[in-house]
Design goal:
Length: 203
């Protein structure tokens, strides 16, 4: 089956690809021809998100031919769901989960300074709950993990080519984006807290 998606504005190439794949049995092949960057990238992302495999060929007219094999793990989305927004949510959820890990390791990395600050703010009753010297000996490891996860999250959301679409993102996608940047900034603040702590509390 050949699907011509040339000159289609986003999200039409993905919608047409979804409709065609829904009608095909497992392991069937769909050929999609598209000549827009967003259409090509979004169709490839959609195929991967639906457990399909594909090969890519360049055509003489500048278009791209995607040969998609429908996988057995293909999940049919309801007609009300925008597949582009579903993909966007999946990628943003992944980045947010990475940032949660970055925040935890950043807090552990700065525990030598954050925990005494908590003692000061909330009272000495927190003393003895966590062995600060023991955690401090692993500070370099926590810092390395925090930097690694911050880098992965930043790559996924900023450096990596994002899904391009003229359709407005859903509220869930917007919330995930806000949550990502909130976690990113909070993680950086926690990671570098030992260096600016003196500016806040004095010597």
């Amino acid at each position: 089956m050949i699907l011509d998606c040339r000159d289609m504005d986003c999200p039409r190439p993905v919608l047409e690809t979804k409709k065609a794949l829904d009608a095909l049995p497992s392991d069937a092949t769909l050929t999609v021809e598209v000549n827009t960057l967003s259409g090509r990238e979004n169709c490839k992302r959609f195929a991967l998100s639906q457990h399909c495999t594909f090969t890519e060929e360049s055509l003489s007219d500048g278009a791209t031919r995607l040969i998609i094999v429908k996988g057995r793990g293909y999940v049919e989305l309801s007609d009300e769901e925008n597949p582009v927004d579903v993909m966007m949510q999946q990628e943003r959820r992944s980045a947010v989960l990475v940032l949660f890990g970055a925040l935890i390791t950043a807090l552990l990395s700065a525990s030598c300074c954050i925990i005494p600050t908590l003692f000061m703010v909330f009272g000495i009753s927190f003393a003895g709950v966590i062995n600060v010297p023991e955690l401090n000996s692993y500070r370099w490891l926590f810092t390395a993990f925090a930097v690694l996860m911050l880098s992965i999250g930043f790559y996924q959301m900023v450096i990596k080519k994002q899904i391009e679409c003229d359709c407005a993102p859903s509220l869930t996608s917007k919330i995930l984006l806000i949550l990502f940047w909130g976690l990113f900034l909070f993680s950086l603040a926690a990671l570098f807290y030992p260096y600016y702590e003196v500016l806040i509390w004095g010597k």
